[in-house]
Amino acid sequence: MADVLNGRAARPLSEQSTAELVQRASEQLSKLVRDELTLAKAELAEKGKHAGIGAGLFGGAGVFAGYGVGALIATAIIALSLVWPLWLASLTVTVAVFLIAGVLALIGRSQFRRATPAEPQAAIEGLKADVDEVKHAVERGRG
């Protein structure tokens, strides 16, 4: 049974030299890797498309949530104006909103400080330890 490889008739496997078999395996492996990379690119493109749509929808939801918070604040002012003068209700709600913003800013700053520096310290230390271990192993092998 002769199959065609790269446009030429190939001899049966039992008649091929080791060099021919290695070359054939190398070509097949290269083709397999290229095909897998093509498949991975197509899959990532599809997932990226869905991620982009999802991010846009989350952004839209955030805009509408912002409008909702504004309406809720206006409702709080109107409700308090039934008991207090309008200026006092408005001032009270404004102060409350700024207090909430301040607390969130302080918590955010604390979290941001935990994230800096942006270097993966544990990974860097692990890599340095691995390099040192390899150096020591090479030195022990020479000695």
Overall mean pLDDT = 87
Q: Structural class, please?
A: mainly alpha
Q: Estimate percent helicity.
A: over 70%
| First-last Cα distance | 57 Å
* Side-by-side strand order of the widest sheet: 1-2
User: Uncertain runs with pLDDT below 50, 5 residues or more?
Assistant: none
User: Whole-number radius of gyration?
Assistant: 33 Å
Number of strand elements: 2
Specify the overall morphology: elongated
Tell me what portion of residues adopts beta-strand conformation. under 5%
The string of secondary-structure elements, in order, is EEHHH
For the report, how would you describe the main beta sheet? 2 strands, antiparallel
Domains, number = 2
In short:
With 143 residues, the chain is an all-alpha fold.
Structure notes:
Helices cover 81% and strands 3% of the residues. It contains three helices and two strands; from the N terminus they run E-E-H-H-H. It has helices at 18-81, 86-115, 121-142, and strands spanning 4-5, 8-9. The protein has a two-stranded antiparallel ribbon. The longest helix is centred in the middle third of the chain and has 64 residues, at 18-81. It is elongated. It starts with a strand and ends with a helix.
